[in-house]
Amino acid sequence: MQHRIIPKTGDKLPVLGFGAMRFPETAGRIDRAKASEMLAYAIENGVNYIDTAVPYHKGQSESFIGDFLEKEGLRDKVFIATKLPHWSVRNPDDISRIFEKQLKDLKTGYIDYYLLHSLSGESWHNLDDLGIKKFLDLEKASGRIRNAGFSFHGDIESFKDVVNAYPWEFCQIQYNFLDEKNQAGTEGLKYAAKSGLAVMVMEPLRGGNLAGNIPENIMDIWKSAKVHRTPAEWALRWVWNHPEVTTVLSGMSSIDQVKENIRVAEDAFPASLSEDELIVIGKVRDKYKETMKVGCTGCRYCMPCPAGVDIPSCFEYYNSYHMFKNGNWAKWQYVFRSHGIMDGKKSHASLCTGCGRCKKACPQHIDIPLRLKEVAKDFDTPVTKAFSGIAGFYLTLRGKISEVLKIKKKVR
Ligand code: SF4
Ligand code: SF4
């Protein structure tokens, strides 16, 4: 595993970090056996930076990591990064209360890398007013926070303001070959590095969209390259090509992904991509930009919606419909899942009432209600509505008939 040194502290960090938000699940819970196998393999192979947060896996991620490290006796072998959910902070006491719970869940007395989660300019000012600098100063002095940082989804000007507002050791930005000019972007990456901050990169595969279900016209470009790599490997190598990047976080979902990412991390050195390789990536970038409808990363910060819309799923199916080769498959998946055919729970785009609550939470600044109207126009058509009505009626009727048959059987 390659390592990079944190400028302000001398910590030696692996270039690949483990994002603890996409573990395999069973019935909505982290599959602890599979996730433990993945973590154990990763740590054994040098991936000893684990990035978690309160909302990951609907609140299960921190306690899973804590249990795993305690059971395996690995706490001292890894760097834990976790984050303060600023949206849950209403007063100064909330900050300490949340932090104490995180220490308890993670079964540790200290956090190696503590971030203010998903800042924008506005949320930074709110936290500043509530005394976050004093909290960080005190906890750093006590040793319970070893390095202070923030993750960021706002615009570049606000990013620079936050970089300048506190003596941070590090920051975390969204960065991949589609986001060079989005949020902090390349300008922010260079700015932070020049200011002496380590830079962790999140979403190197843009929520997995750059790794799987690749449209044919994009695969053709990848295949035209002289060297053959998977789309995920191309995307990761592009990020590591930047010398300013310290650690790339990958939210891995299978042991195969862990092995593949470790293999790539071994020799993805800074400035190692050739001119030809960069041209291939540029062509892929242009092609994606032509076809992507909504720049949603699936972070789910906009959720829950009071009207029940599953916003990221709507955008995921909508993007898949327009970007990937089997578009109709995505459309009918959407109809089955979001029209409540299987479980009666509706979450489709046309439920949106336009209240606008989600817009404020979106780090990608997507005009969610407006874009949901487009989704509804393509997907919630008279045909799909009629289909879901009939299918739902049929399944309900079938359920009722089978209940009656069961009762009859019991009576006999
Ligand atoms: S604007 Fe629409 S999608 Fe957003 S929170 Fe309100 S109802 Fe839900
Ligand atoms: S719409 Fe915005 S907040 Fe919601 S999942 Fe997508 S990127 Fe995240």
Automatic annotation (TrEMBL):
Domain 4Fe-4S ferredoxin-type: 343-371
InterPro entries: 4Fe4S_Fe-S-bd, 4Fe4S_Fe_S_CS, AKR2_Oxidoreductase, NAD(P)_OxRdtase_dom_sf, NADP_OxRdtase_dom
Top-rank lineage group of the source organism: Archaea
GO MF terms, alphabetically ordered: oxidoreductase activity
UniProt name for this protein: Aldo/keto reductase
Species in which this protein is naturally found: Methanoplanus endosymbiosus
